[in-house]
Amino acid sequence: MEERPAQQGTSEALRQAIFIAAAFAVATLGYYSWKFIFFRADWRAAAAAIQAEYKPGDAVVMFPSFLRDEVFNFKGMAAVAPKEDSYVNFHGFSRLWAAINTKYTPGNSDRLPLKNDVRVEKEIKRGSVVIRLYPLPSFNATQVFKAGKVAVYGISDAKRELCEKRANGTFKCGHETWQFVGAHKVDIAGQGAECIWAHPMSKKQIEIEFPAPAVSKLHVYSAFADTGSGGGYVPPVRFGLYQGGKAIKEYVHPQRSGWTKHVVTSKLDPELPLVAKVTTDQEGRQHWCFNIEAE
Q1: How many CA atoms lie within 13 A of 51 on its CB side?
Q2: DSSP code string of 79-130
Q3: Phi, psi of 66 (to 5 degrees)
Q4: For the segment 14-24, what is each residue's pLDDT rounded down to a tens digit?
């Protein structure tokens, strides 16, 4: 009987421990339930805001990527929550709505899967979600290439020959597997992208003809793919853009990773083809590609 007070004390301590654990569990559950409810409320409000101004030709991209379950809020809209390392093809769309949860993603849109220096046309805020509207390029050389509206030539010893067009839409310009020109998915500085693969050849100049858009400003992009630019010397690549025999832009691609961007201001004649020329003095690991866009 003398041990009862100790047993009672032990039971009381156990009850207190159970009470504290239960209270903590309830508080934690309540916090996450509150967070979940308001988190989803922000996304519902964001979806409603976009829906009010959504037009045919619009696309919606959501950040961060783990929010794919929230896509159901955007019923009837072309919406996607891409993985960070994925490339999303927005060609064919005219406007892009970017819905960004600022609690998990920085307020800027550096991770947008676009190469173009698109401008923000409009910004809306709904709770923790920031919505930005971007106009998308009206002309994209990669997409034009995929549509089969190009011609590719190899020029050597003053002889101009049409490269062989293959079933996959690319052009074979040499005997090696890498000697082709065409739309290709690569990694640029760790980020997935789609561009026109045009590995230069030392004994042959690559010449690509596009139908010219009726614009006066072009965005020209070029880069070494990660498979070829990692470490060591990469021979220079020369690139030029011409129309009617006149040079619009000429440059030597720099020895570094990541995109090189140029804005070219020149009124184009839609009746004349736009010609891109790629060459090098020495073949190497020039896993090189480019793209041209216009607003």
Answers
A1: 13
A2: EE---TT-----TT-SEEEEEEETTTS-SS-TT-S--S-PPP-EEEEETTEE
A3: -75, 0
A4: 555 554 554 44
Residue 203, token pair as written in the block: 């004994």
Model confidence pLDDT, tens digit, residues 124-170: 999 888 898 988 888 888 888 887 788 888 878 778 888 888 888 88
Q: Which amino acid is at 213?
A: P
Compute the distance between CA of residue 100 and CA of residue 120 in angstroms, rounded to an integer.
Answer: 14
Helix (H) or strand (E) holding 290: strand 288-294
Q: What is the DSSP letter of 267?
A: -
The confidence score (pLDDT) of residue 67 equals 61
**Residues 204, 162: contact at Cβ < 8 Å?**
no
Instruction: Pull the structure tokens for residue 199.
Output: 């590995």
- Residue 295's Cβ-side half-sphere holds a number of Cα atoms within 13 Å equal to 12
How do strand 171-172 and strand 180-188 relate by DSSP bridges?
A: antiparallel
The letter for the amino acid at 81 is A
157 φ, ψ (degrees, to nearest 5): 50, 45
Q: Do 203 and 158 form a contact (C-beta atoms < 8 A)?
A: no
